[in-house]
Structures are given as structure tokens and as C-alpha cells.
Write a structure and sequence with these properties.
This protein is α+β, with helices and mostly antiparallel strands and about 120 residues long. The chain has a single domain, classed as PH-domain like (Roll). About 20% of the residues lie in helices and about 45% in strands. The chain has helices at about 5-10, 90-105; strands at about 15-25, 30-35, 40-45, 55, 60-70, 70-80, 85-90. A seven-stranded antiparallel β-sheet has the order 4-3-2-1-7-6-5, covered by helices on one side. A hairpin with a 7-residue loop joins β3 (about 40-45) and β4 (about 55). It is globular and about 45 Å long.
């Protein structure tokens, strides 16, 4: 992970981070880490510095639980109305709860001149 991203996630506070796989439309799979912060959901493939995908939580339209062959924990995220991202996760329910919790929690800090 690059320094800028590390600093950004430190400010936003990581709510959940686990190993996962990203499923591409052409059925290719990329293993890496799915990271949820107060403002975004990131997926970084193993060995990469930059995220494969960076989804602003405000742009998420729907979450869905899918299955494919023997994999029964696929988290499907529809965002920006027409985009879809699919991830194989360890526990779908915990990810859905964590994402919804972060989306519903205001992450606003007071301006520094008020402190």
C-alpha cells in the first residue's frame, strides 16, 4: 500500500480489514485485502501498491449475497448506479452489517478553529 493511502486510511479509521478475493466480470479472481473505512471500501490485490477498486460509501446503491459453485459468501456491491463489484469474503453477514453501519454513521469532525 502506498504512503498516501496509508495516511488517508489512518485519518478515516479502518473499521474492517480481511483477506478476500475480487471476482472480475471475466471470471478471473484476484486475491488480496478488502478494507472498510468510515468513508470508503477498498480492495488491494496482493503485491500491488494501489487499490484495484475504491468505492465511496455514499455511492453504494445495494448490497447482495450471492453464491457461485461452491462459494457461498460472495458480497456483491452495486454502486454509482451501473457499476458492480463482487468479492468473496469470509463472512458475508459481518461485512454487510459493517458496511451499513459505516454508511449510517456520520464521520464529520469539528473544524479546527472551534477546538
Amino acid at each position: 500500500m502506498n504512503k498516501y493511502l496509508e495516511q488517508l486510511l489512518e485519518i478515516e479509521i479502518i473499521a474492517k480489514s480481511e483477506p478476500a478475493s475480487m471476482l472480475h466480470a471475466d471470471n478471473k479472481r484476484c486475491n488480496g485485502r478488502l478494507i472498510l473505512s468510515g468513508k470508503r471500501l477498498l480492495f488491494i490485490c496482493n503485491g500491488n501498491e494501489n487499490p484495484e477498486i475504491d468505492i465511496d460509501l455514499d455511492t453504494i446503491n445495494a448490497l447482495a449475497h450471492e453464491s457461485q459453485f461452491v462459494d457461498h459468501n460472495i458480497l456483491t456491491i452495486n454502486y454509482l448506479q451501473y457499476e458492480t463489484a463482487r468479492f468473496t469474503v469470509i463472512d458475508y453477514d459481518s461485512w454487510e452489517i459493517a458496511i451499513e453501519h459505516q454508511r449510517m454513521t456520520p464521520h464529520i469532525s469539528a473544524p479546527s478553529f472551534l477546538n
